[in-house]
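How it folds
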Amino acid sequence: MVDSFIQSLKAPKDIASFKMDWEMSLVHLERVWNRVEGAFGNSAKWGGFSGKYQRARREDQLLAYLRMARDSAEHGITEITNTIPGGMAINPVDKSKPVVIHSLHVSDGRVTMSGSENAQVEIIPPHVELVPVTNRGVVKNVPTLHMGISLENVTMAEALQMARDYYSGLIDQAAAFFEKA
């Protein structure tokens, strides 16, 4: 199920759908943990097996943030994302030369330039960004690392994929561990 949300986040229909898919993906990630715990939690070996995963869910920036964001979305009243409106930028084609614009007209969403030199227009689409989340007075900042890997240029879809891969590994490890038991 998380895979379909990842695909939706990569090619969103609109901002509202993107935000809804993000929130639903958080619910499904947490559901994976709950199902693994439900399947194996009654085993005497659960405590020994689950310790490193419980620690990662508390201490890894991305995993802890996603848990807190899910809790905040589910139980809180504050937003877990921020919408950045789109816009337009006029940049130089050649950065060593100045931009010259003799006339600029914006009407009905269309930009018309005349007499311009060394100018290119960039349309910046609206997008969604993560924000610090709060639940029960505890604040989690936007993660910058996951398992020691920088999240600096990682999209929300890529971060979700990283978390999905982590939980997929958890399922595989649990199945192998408890199958032997």
About this structure: The helical segments are 2-10, 15-40, 46-59, 61-75, 156-180. The chain has a mean pLDDT of 92. The beta strands are 81-84, 87-92, 103-107, 110-114, 119-124, 127-130, 133-135, 138-140, 145-146, 149-150. The radius of gyration is 22 Å.
